[in-house]
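Duplicate of #3305? Posting structure anyway:
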């Protein structure tokens, strides 16, 4: 069998004729169509999370300028923003229990259900307490996607498309946030709440109709027939295919090797798991210190404070259009440049953008002259560079680096640490700005991104164009012969 066909998990075996190339193209198309169907629900889940992320930027402004159903103080607004991160902590615990017991598909179904609850409570809110509970629900829903969305994609995708599919989820999330940024400032508070329910409902339908259970989960549960059937649906071919059975055997061997490590504690004590857990968890858990999440939550408020030649709402829209465009470019670069290079370049750009904005706010120049473009330009540099790596790559690395036996514990643990970091950053952002000047939080973000460049170059391994079996072998210090998945 040709390597081109084998890499895509193809099930047809064309002979050595002129039709081989066209058959390979048809086989590749079949794989893509099968994977598109199974991952459509995950993509819409990402869009739903993006809508929930973008809600705060314009909704908080409405609730502070008396155009909402009630008014928020600055302290209440900070709780509305930061309780989303507490919800991520709670959701990580909940989804961690479901992930191993109920399976990947059932776990993913929790996300749209929780986000529908968020939208309903937000619509019905008549006091801050409603929003506090709603934001806990939205955070819990996001945790399901953030922790296990990339894990699911890594387990069901072929090697050549794994990076692209993972980054497409980031693009869908940004599209959801962009929808809120473009529509939110110009509609009523309650209409904006309904806007959050639509993609969540669509995600629920797509997950129920098309999402296939992960073959890795079925192999871990000793359900070989179901595993083979699921893999056939994911590859768009017959269960009788030799290539499909080869891939199924490799999945079973990978799962069996990890079982042979003994208890979960023993697996985590192995050098490979220890290195993977250290790198993956550090990159994921410290991601809020890049500054992107708090920037998006307070985008309009930041432009009100720093000034912009455009209006604050229009500047926020420009920011997110640039971010989505950069994420689209990243889909073409992640499997060409590699995860490590993209993350390094991204953090360097983040550092420059945040340092320039911090210096501008610290100098307090005349904001009516030519320098008034600096805040928008520096934030544009930041969101573009962040979208090229710091936003999408940490989740992808975590999904690729953690062995199967470590995922049920380490994936939610990393998201719990992420939520604690994000809560601290969101809650302290305005307080630090008021106490030390608004330049201070941006200086902290710049310093952390500089440290992230050094950490990435020193410790993060490259995983591009490697199957999950090869990644685990690389971390264990051995080469894996099989090339499937």
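Output from current build:
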């Amino acid at each position: 069998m040709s390597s081109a066909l084998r890499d895509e998990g193809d099930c047809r075996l064309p002979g050595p004729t002129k039709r081989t190339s066209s058959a390979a193209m048809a086989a590749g198309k079949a794989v893509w169509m099968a994977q598109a169907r199974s991952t459509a629900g995950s993509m819409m889940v990402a869009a739903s999370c993006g809508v929930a992320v973008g809600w705060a930027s314009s909704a908080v402004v409405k609730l502070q300028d008396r155009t909402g159903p009630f008014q928020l103080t600055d302290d209440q607004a900070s709780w509305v923003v930061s309780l989303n991160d507490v919800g991520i902590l709670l959701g990580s615990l909940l989804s961690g229990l479901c992930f191993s017991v109920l399976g990947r598909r059932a776990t993913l179904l929790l996300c749209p259900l929780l986000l529908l609850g968020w939208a309903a409570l937000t619509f019905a809110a008549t006091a801050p307490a409603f929003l506090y509970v709603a934001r806990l629900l939205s955070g819990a829903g996001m945790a399901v996607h953030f922790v296990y969305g990339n894990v699911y994609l890594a387990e069901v995708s072929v090697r050549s498309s794994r990076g692209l599919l993972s980054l497409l989820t980031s693009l869908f999330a940004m599209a959801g946030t962009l929808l809120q940024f473009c529509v939110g400032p110009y509609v009523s508070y309650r209409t904006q709440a309904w806007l959050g329910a639509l993609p969540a409902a669509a995600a629920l339908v797509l997950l129920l109709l098309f999402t296939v259970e992960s073959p890795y989960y079925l192999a871990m549960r000793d359900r070989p027939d179901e595993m083979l059937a699921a893999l056939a649906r994911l590859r768009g071919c017959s269960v009788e295919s030799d290539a499909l059975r080869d891939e199924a055997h490799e999945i079973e061997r990978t799962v069996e090797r990890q079982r042979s490590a003994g208890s979960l504690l023993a697996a985590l004590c192995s050098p490979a798991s220890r290195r993977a857990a250290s790198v993956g968890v550090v990159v994921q858990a410290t991601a809020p210190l890049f500054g992107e999440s708090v920037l998006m939550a307070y985008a309009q408020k930041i432009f009100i404070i720093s000034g912009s030649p455009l209006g604050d709402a229009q500047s926020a829209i420009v920011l997110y259009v640039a971010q989505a465009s950069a994420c689209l470019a990243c889909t073409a670069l992640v499997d060409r440049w590699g995860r490590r290079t993209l993350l390094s370049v991204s953090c360097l750009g983040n550092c420059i953008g945040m340092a320039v904005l911090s210096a501008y706010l610290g100098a307090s120049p005349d904001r009516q002259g030519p320098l008034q473009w600096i805040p928008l330009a520096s934030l544009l540099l930041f969101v573009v560079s962040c979208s090229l790596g710091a936003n999408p790559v940490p989740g992808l690395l975590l999904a690729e680096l953690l062995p199967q036996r470590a995922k049920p514990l380490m994936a939610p643990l990393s998201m719990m640490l992420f939520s604690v970091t994000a809560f601290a950053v969101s809650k302290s952002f305005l307080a630090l700005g008021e106490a030390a000047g608004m330049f201070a939080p941006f200086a902290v973000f710049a310093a952390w991104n500089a440290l992230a460049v050094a950490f990435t170059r020193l410790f993060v391994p490259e995983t591009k164009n490697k199957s999950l079996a090869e990644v685990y072998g690389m971390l264990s210090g051995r080469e894996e012969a099989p090339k499937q998945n």
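Confirmed duplicate; merging threads. Confidence is low (pLDDT under 50) at residues 1-10, 12-20, 478-485. Residues 149 and 237 are 24 Å apart (CA to CA).
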